[in-house]
Fold these 4 entries.
Entry 1:
Amino acid sequence: MADPLDRGQIDSQQLLFTIETSIRVVKRFQFFLWAQGSLQALLPHEIMVCACGDIERLDFRAMVFSRTVLAPDFESRLTDPAGGLISRLLESWRQGAREPLISAQGADHTPVGRTLSSLQLTHALAHGCREVRGEQSTFFALLGLPLAPTLHDARRIELLMPHLHLALLRVNEFERAENGARPRSRNPLPISLSARELQVLEWVREGKTNHEIGQILDISPLTVKNHIQKILRKLDVTNRAQAVARVAALRAREGGVDVAGDAS
């Protein structure tokens, strides 16, 4: 990239730690924890938007990782391929010869800068990885940086890009394999839970919060809450622990829980 920086100016220990910890990322919640841990220490940000797919054709799947719960309409304005922030960042990135993209509040009067201002977001840093197989390309946008991104930050995300790219591909591959291997039905019981409700219940059993489950399943925390309320009613229990224990008892006694076809 233009005006390259000396690697010695980058905190090499933090960079190496971030790279090493990325290798263990396979599942979505692991990506979330990594992004909010070692990556956050290296490149502080409020929100990360990740896109994977054919980014040249704007045919991609986007996911959002954030410390706070985002309203569904706000998240849609970030991820919409047709006019959302991610599509504007991708267009600017392509026009900039696919170099790391910097947008500083008050200094960026481009469509990206105006979109950031309309969303009340501060500075942004974005970069991507274009694969020969277009559907395996990735793009990452760090939003709400506390300070205007510098060339040092651009250098950091450039060095981290192969590891961000591979971590996201591993998450997508794991979820494809998991969805393909998940059984569609089990032995019938008087209790009937949808496939999505069973997914939510499994993560409840793992001790995940509504926000974490939403990140893992790519749904909003409010949707997770609604699923849990339905689960409690169907199982005739009053809390999460009772729900997990009830299903475990039913499975042990009857050999399964009936799964309805609804996976929404």
Entry 2:
Amino acid sequence: MNVLWVMLVAGVLMLIEMVYMRIFALRRIQYERFFTKRELYCGQEVEMVEIIANHKLTPVPWLRMESRMSASLRFGAQENLDIMEDLYHRSVFFLRSHRRIRRRHRVTCTRRGYFNMDSVTMSAGDLLGLWSQSRQLALSAELVVYPRLMDPGELPIPSRKWQGDIVVRRWILPDPYLINGIREYRHGDTLRDVHWGATARTGALQVKTRDYTASPRLMLVINVQLTQNQWGELNPAQRDIVEGAFSIAATLARWATDNGVDAGLCCNGVLAGEEGREILIEPSHGEGHLALLMETMARVIIRRRKSLHSYIDETLIEPAVTGLDILVVSAYWSDLLEERAQALRRQGNAVVHVPVGGAS
């Protein structure tokens, strides 16, 4: 009889505990998550910090925090942490009354990208785990992973040649005393450059072209296509080839900033969160501008928005840009791209193909 009474009392207490936890388990629970750095380079390590606090008298037997994570973020081994198939991050806590816990996780960023952990699912339940309650919390934990920087020896030979040769010959402002030829008038040319003798001979307005000083302007053109006709998604091995293009461009952008060279960027990919936006950044200099270039490269999704030759037409040829060192970082080079390169050279630019993944 005593055993029955014990079992009855235990059952009643368990029922009371279940009802109480159903009402109060998630009340006055505060959760915060952030990274110790917002921006870093691929391959570097950062800490993700979780802070959870129970602001009520009643303890919480177990509380689980779950959120979706990119497989590109590798977590170090840690107690009470579970990464399910590289997709879900799960932390489990026991919270005493008026308890605050701070937990740190070491995270290695294995790929370029923009990561925003914007929500987490919080679950709690009774002592025996017979019942649980969940709710979703909105968070904002951003991480911007720049492309991996390469050692100078890893860069393709044409880009190393460019650093030591082409840049020395290029320019930013025309020298008014060095005239090197004549061409047809284009919109934006000044009247003082008109060559009246040539105009009279040809019957069409002609202007003088000039040599320039030795201060360069660099435009990095990144191609997210592996072949000229490629659409669709890439497999992991193909994506790694294109990722190499971003590493080369990031390394050259870093080099340009360190050497006082203006650098710009254009890419025929898609920008995360702004799918309709054209990716074009005019050349400039300084650490702030470098951060803009790096973050833009981090946010690019490897999916072509336009074919590269069409993109070059719209962003560089039709606006008649001139005075640029244009580096086309691409896994292929075709007759259509060579035609665009020749057109850009006629406009007064230098054009170099920087191969990726064994391209030539």
Entry 3:
Amino acid sequence: MRRRSLRLRLLVTFGLGAFVLSSLMATLTYVGVQRLLIDNQQQADLGQSYVNADLVRSTLYNSPPELSNLLNSIENASASNVLVRTHQEWLARSNSASTYDVSADTLNTVDAGRATEQTLRVNGRIIFVVGVPIPSVETQFFEVFQLSNLEHTLRLLLIALIFGALATSLIGLSGGLWVARRTVRPLTEVSNAAALIAEGALTTRLLVNRADREVQQLTESFNQMVSQLVQRLERDARFASDVSHELRSPLTTLATTASVLQQHRDDLSPAGRESLDLLLADLSIFQSLVEDLLEMARSDGGVPLVMETLPVVELARQSVLSASRRLGLDEPPVEVASGVGDPLVRVDRRRFERVITNLIDNAHRYAGGAVALRIDVADALVEVNVDDAGAGVPLEESEQVFERFFRGRAAHDRGIARGTGLGLALVRDHVRAFGGTITVSRSPDGGARFQILLPLVQSEGT
């Protein structure tokens, strides 16, 4: 799976952040201004309506025939539509007034003797309706104000805020691009240098030019780390060479001598045969110990892995076959869960085979042998389970078994086959180098289950 670019994420974060903030500010500004303008307009219109209602009352008292002229004058002066209702009948109205603008709720409220106000949207228009009862002349006064001018102002404000939000987002994107370039450039240089070092170019170093304090500190720390790594690799390489020379030569001599003695076993006394058996057993442990120490020296020394993308099923079968032949044991079956297909993993072939060999050898020494090696896929992870026929690993030792030189009860019981205590530690180190994990739990067969989880590699075209 291809990971997203840090540069892209920074760019999106700045751009999206600017857009969200500008949109939020634009929304709050629009809602606030809209509420303020409408409230102010309605308060002014409401006060004007009470004044006009008082004029209507005076006209009905003194000169009722002049009511129509008054309503038209009010319409021209306040840009509103006025209607007058008496005894459930419309008594008079201004030229542009329409009774459809007054809702039934408004009529009922004013009929009950209560003044009311209501904002409505009628045919795409926003209107403000004020109803005032005039009980002294048994009349109801209604005035309808058109808020079209206010609506036009709000529309212009909304357009301006939208363009402002877009402009702010573009500025945010530009700032994100500038920050992303400055942030990612040192990381790219470190990544390229690390890739060269991984390929064997151990003389690669980062150049310290004009840079920020944090970048300069990163560069100096990286160069210092590489220098220390090179020194450690050289020291470990010398150590591995010395161990190979100092231990393998006498070990080969001991093995040859023991082999000669084994050929003349029948000529030995019972005590001599018993001593020979102890010698062969301890010699086998000594050989395993030397081999494990050399492998651990290579692993700790940072010897580069030869990573390959391989089908895990076939790789597991080959590893089981190689381990069985090497250890002289019966080959445990490799079981693949239904529907798994042919998943791919990225590992170092030699170290993966070493992992399987150590697990099978561990099962043989301590748990009556490996029952099966089972492969499954779950949540983009490949599961490689090695189940044995033993009594299982105690819960309190489920983490300790992967520590170096930990052998549990076998360290104190001479009746149990003895190992070096390094096999499972090497297994954990190799699995971690593959980007995976290993845990121990109880298998369905009742023994221990050592479960390796490796990242599933998507095949080309997937």
Entry 4:
Amino acid sequence: MNSLKLDDFLPYRLSIASNAVSDAIASAYRTLFGLRIPEWRLVAVLAEGGAMSQQALCGRTRMDKVTVSRAAIGLAERGLIARAANPSDQRSHLVALTPDGWQLYEQIAPKALEMERALFASFSKEEQAQLSAMLARIEAAVTALDGG
């Protein structure tokens, strides 16, 4: 019988590394901008992808409906996002960054890139490209395990 050793179990190590990175980023964004990670993710996804429904945000961020909803409410209360009717689906709304939301994003994006550079400073460009490719393969494998 094989025994499970967490320090050798790659899904566990991936989760621990991800949590450590998220915690470091969360601390910085909370201190500098008053944002939690789910809020930052919504701001970044909306900046990159434009207006979208909360359902689409769930898919893009891989966060559940409750987390996306809470983050959207927090951002809306701060005037960083606005909801508008969805012309292609009257049952849903589109969420988009407001001018204040764009201004916040423009302040955060350079900090995010700076943090990424610091985290991966000891990795060569080739290693960073390999890690990115491996992460894409992991995401694809998870999608396949989930049934599509």
